[in-house]
Design goal:
The structure is a homodimer. With about 220 residues, chain A is α/β, with parallel strands linked by helices. Helices cover about 40% and strands about 20% of the residues of chain A. A 7-stranded parallel beta sheet of chain A has the order 3-2-4-1-5-6-7, sandwiched between helices. Chains A and B meet through helix 1 and helix 5 of A and helix 1 and helix 5 of B.
Chain lengths: ~220, ~220
């Protein structure tokens, strides 16, 4: 069996598990986000800003993926939201089987929103469906505006892009319009937000949009 | 054949090619760096700073790895240094076979230093030997000081770590000492540098250290 056959086998098995997850999430009316980015773009910081604003009226669960450490789950728990940490060991992405396993002991009837914070990696997680409603990709102003061009596979599968760390714009060489235009050149249906987790700018727009998505999913049950 | 067997097969084949490369580099006295980091940590920016300072007396070749675009090779060529761009398509790392292939038409007798700028990814490139003398890992002050803890496999295989973007320290929450201490906790033999490609701070120290490495390798032929 060759490398490509094995990859196809892995992805097809992952898809089976992802489909099972998606069916459960649909039945329960849970909106599910797969949050992806490079290491250090601010996925956890974004959640620290957003989650307190969703607490009123929404029950959220966060699943944290990292090679090592419980750091991110601990940061999330400080906001008062439940978080489950998955340590992948060496693995560069989460798979649907990881999510199925940790949800075995969770009462999903109580939950409106699940955010899966994937391993920091702008490449590999793009290939793995986790049963989510949407992948949201974060890029930050310190990474260079050409990231969408250089990592198009992730932009292609995402439904929304958040440009984070706009408070650092005066100090870095980053053209927000160019970055968005590169991204929309790859995926013109992309919803785009800009924000700063340091100043809070733009956070309310994301929260409002997310609340609408959660309500829409709920209404379908 | 299972997933693990196939991975072992891929890595063992990669090692064969890497050993061939390493033997050639040793015979020719070429010092080879495998430069790794997250997307946007400043690998290309670091090379733009370092390469002009090495030009006098050293002949360098840069090999650029990206999923897509020729952007980085073009930036390197503007410094007057030859650059070969490898586009991996979807692949999240360079393999030794990629390097062997692009070096087929290069006269290695003229070269003192090869820098391979890997795909921006803090996970997968750690598993692939490219025949290099050392992996140098870049982290940047905008990524959070806990990156060594969260991506230990890369820190473990690196010989040096460069903490980049120290000009942004006043604007971000990043403790340089903690970052270095986390990294040395995983790999206590790590050479560590701090620098800013925006202000040039710390660049000369890296250049001096690199010149010594190049000279040492050359002297062994």
């Amino acid at each position: 069996m060759g490398k490509i056959d094995v990859m196809e086998g892995i992805l097809s098995k992952n898809q089976t598990y992802a489909d099972m997850l998606r069916q459960t999430f649909t039945e329960k009316g849970i909106f599910v986000v797969n949050l992806v980015s490079s290491p250090g773009s601010g996925k956890t910081s974004l959640l620290e800003e957003i989650l307190p604003l969703l607490k009123d009226g929404h029950k959220t669960l966060v699943i944290e993926g990292d090679l090592q450490t419980e750091n991110d789950a601990e940061r999330i728990r400080k906001t008062g939201v439940d978080a489950i940490q998955i340590n992948t060991g060496g693995a560069c992405h989460l798979e649907a089987a990881n999510i199925l396993k940790v949800l075995e002991n969770v009462d999903l009837d109580l939950i409106d929103l699940i955010v899966i914070e994937n391993v920091g990696n702008l490449v590999c997680p793009s290939s793995y469906d986790l049963g989510e409603d949407m992948k949201i990709v974060l890029v930050s102003t310190t990474e260079g505006e050409d990231k969408p061009q250089k990592y198009p596979s992730m932009i292609r599968v995402a439904k929304a892009m958040v440009v984070n760390k706009i408070d650092l714009l005066p100090y870095v060489n980053f053209n927000v319009e160019k970055c968005i235009s590169y991204a929309r050149g790859i995926n013109n249906a992309l919803d785009v937000f800009t924000c700063s987790c340091a100043t809070g700018e733009g956070i309310l727009d994301i929260v409002k949009w997310l609340k609408e998505k959660i309500a829409t999913k709920k209404a379908l049950v």
